[in-house]
UniProtKB/TrEMBL annotation:
The gene is pyrH. Its main location: cytoplasm. It is found in: Cytoplasm. It catalyses: UMP + ATP = UDP + ADP. Allosterically activated by GTP. Inhibited by UTP. This is Uridylate kinase. Belongs to the UMP kinase family. One of its GO terms (cellular component) is cytoplasm. InterPro entries: AceGlu_kinase-like_sf, Asp/Glu/Uridylate_kinase, Uridylate_kinase, Uridylate_kinase_bac.
Amino acid sequence: METAKYKRVVLKLSGESLAGDQGFGINPAVVEDIAAQVKQVREHGIDVAIVVGGGNIWRGLAGSAKGMDRATADYMGMMATVMNALALQDALEKIEVDTRVQTAIEMRQVAELYIRRKAIRHMEKGRVVIFGAGTGNPYFSTDTTAALRAAEIEADVILMAKKGTDGIYDRDPNKYKDAKKFEALAYIEILNKGLAVMDSTATSLCMDNKIPLVVFNIDDHKNIVRAALGENIGTTVGG
Ligand code: UDP
């Protein structure tokens, strides 16, 4: 068995990554596949916390663009992430991976409330912790949640699984054939070049707290394990 480079990782799954090719909603087969990979990561003794997005169901910005109150639309987005968190928990527990969902908004019949020390304790006991409801605040994203939680639980890295792209490019590789992929880059370059990796709040939080990030393609089904084992896949961001 390979020696793991990381002791504790935050896996950021976009909502889209749970939708599979249908592009919307939750595809149980895809969720099962992700759960199987997370189980393998756990078998390497790596602590896993998951931050899940909600874009496969609802994005606050899309609602507000159509005239909804932004904060209300964002709370709907946070609810969407909880649906995804429960789907992931279900798939993980079906394959006997102990899992706790912690939400940033209290919904005690459904999940635990996010308590930092409790989250750490769960991981020490070998449980996977899934953080739902983002930061609990409108105007934020689940990328920012990943940065915040990674800092709080002292994770070694954020593993950011993307659909349809295998890393960070200097321009959109779907539009420009000569787009160049970065093997590694610094957070400040993301900000300066305006690269569409994650929003600037999340980028600054990672930069200020020196949390490394690996952006990789989730379409290849072995990549969560490979990224968690520290293989050079995708693009690494630091600095
Ligand atoms: N959201 C929020 N505050 C947070 C995290 C998320 O208001 O701290 C809302 C926001 O409306 C966002 C939606 O939840 O559009 C879904 O999250 P996100 O867009 O980050 O999901 P992803 O793109 O990763 O699927």
